[in-house]
Amino acid sequence: MTLQAQKPVDDGEKAHWLAVRPRLVLASAFMLFLELALIRWTGSNIVHLSYFTNFVLLGSFLGIGLGFLRVGRSRRQPYYSPVVLAVLVAVVLTFPVTVDRNTEGVLYWTSLSTSGPPAWLILPVIFCAAALVLMGPAELVGRCFPELPRLEAYRYDLIGSLSGIAAFTALSFLSAPPVFWGLIAAICYGLLLIPRPRSLYLGLVTVPSLAVVGLLLMETLTAGAIWSPYYKVTMRQLTQLGVLVTDIAVNGIPHQQAVPAAARLQWEAQYGLPYERTSKPPKDVLIVGAGSGTDVAIALSKGAGRVDAVEIDPKLRELGGSVHPDKPYDDPRVTTHITDGRAFLERTGDKYDLILFALPDSLTLVSGASSLRLESYLFTEEAMKAARAHLKPGGTFSMYNYYRESWLVDRLASTMQSAFGHKPCVDVVSTAGQQAVITAGVTADAQRCASEWPGAAPGTPQPANDDRPFLYLKDATIPPIYIITLGLILIVSLFAVRVVAGPYERMRPYADLFLLGVAFMLLETKSVTGFALLFGTTWVVNAIVFAGVLVAVLAAVEVTRHFRTPPLPVMYGVLLAGLLLAWLVPNAWLLSLPVPLRAVAAVVVAFLPIFAANVVFAKRFAETADATTSFGANLLGAMVGGCLEYAALVIGYKGLLIVAAVLYIGAMVLLPRKSVTA
């Protein structure tokens, strides 16, 4: 295999003031940071992205792949990137998409009434703009690759990517507003793009970068937003029926109200029904989705002696502590837990008289995982069995929300029936919006129903489970809007690759690397969703998992660089064995383990195939004749893998392992003959 560096294709790079290694690390860090910032910021202003969470991710992968493929075809600096970023920021702030209704309620799929540009117009703009923006940093990264040995370049690229994740995670921890993201982008553009000629640099780099910072500063100062790790949170105070109410919106969607407990109970019966359906007054109460504190205040007003309040978003909890008129979080009977509700149930050893899921609709998806919402694992049959296991004798479990569809009420009620072994109480408080309360006692004698639930209507879908936790998907199918959108993405991508990279023949020798990219994206998705189930859907868990994937990749590169590894067919065998192990180990067994042992087992199961897959990639990449084209083909494969993630809606997340195995076998078949013994 050949590891010698190639001659740089761009003589202009010799004039760069940064040496190639630090430049590669900085460009890689900037590339990943910009990708994460775009996903986070566009989703806070374009409500449609709550349902296409990987839309910007797919555009980013396309742009990164195109950036690598463009290396060698142009010697011009990618000045287009800051210009397109400035235009994107201006368009999104000028034409945001928000929900134009003032009632609370669960949102799912496309059941939205919105103001702003329609989805068919704004989503293609966002996708294409994300691709063009990321193509610039990717091109800067790609220009460094020919100057270094293959695996050394890949190594510094991974170190930079980890640095980008660390920087964005730190800013998320500090709840920094987007103006700081814009400042970092402006600084990176200034450091990486060569200021020659100066007039061109001033007009295409300095001015657009300052425009981005200025626009994001205006947003920060005028919106009055609080930036949590999940949302852009805004609030307004108003008087409703003589009562001071604080309305809280997230990402432009009405979400919660901080209302005195007495007023809430008077206005909406659903909040008091869980306490009326119990066989005894609950003293120990667990509230999942505590939010701004109204449900906690109601529990205290009903005589609870102890309340565990679980809320995933730290900023919503902080708002509740500062603006709720009843000050429920100041009460010594209340203990707050900032974590995912399912993770709390799997971790705690406490038992309760009442467990309440209080409108836990997150209105956002887990970044990087198709269709997995923050609360998805709360509404599976396994989750309700976990809740039942934490009830005291005579205890009850209850949930309420605005379910919008009668089949959804029946699905949740039948899920509860399956988990508890008897029919629950079902109170449809209002048919407008299907406002309902569903309650089940630990035994049938522990609940007090107003009337017997007649059972689920014909055609009600089966209960959701941990493998397919898609509560709002009625049928095991991919909704047409996704099929059409993903098809258009692939068509646009094929056209863009042809225009930017030239004939497809350039990538033909690297068809196996393309398939490796497709399969690895599916493997990463399975890992992210698996860790979300085992440890929670929190942003901290997601950041750790994404960083862990990169560490596993980096470890594979270092092992390949410093040690003699088995031939590629053998490594493919190890990889397929790792996939088989991941398939055979059930989630239920992992959840039954103590948290430290669960962490060790989960890391082994998830990261063994990831490590093996990247040893395969590193060995194959090291011998390629064209570093940038081969790497670009792999990145474009990752984009296709992002589209293929939606197959989980039909076959479940575990089924992605089978698809990945087929793709890896295909990549092995396409190996060049000289690589078989490498």
UniProtKB/TrEMBL annotation:
GO BP term, example: polyamine biosynthetic process
InterPro entries per the UniProt record, alphabetical: SAM-dependent_MTases_sf
UniProt keywords, alphabetically: Membrane, Polyamine biosynthesis, Transmembrane, Transmembrane helix
TM region positions: 24-43, 49-72, 79-99, 119-141, 153-173, 179-194, 201-227, 481-501, 513-533, 539-557, 569-591, 597-617, 629-649, 655-672
Species in which this protein is naturally found: Nonomuraea jabiensis
SUPFAM superfamilies: S-adenosyl-L-methionine-dependent methyltransferases
PANTHER family per the UniProt record, alphabetical: THERMOSPERMINE SYNTHASE ACAULIS5 (PTHR43317)
Record has Transport as a keyword: no
Domain of life: Bacteria
Designated name of the protein: Spermine/spermidine synthase
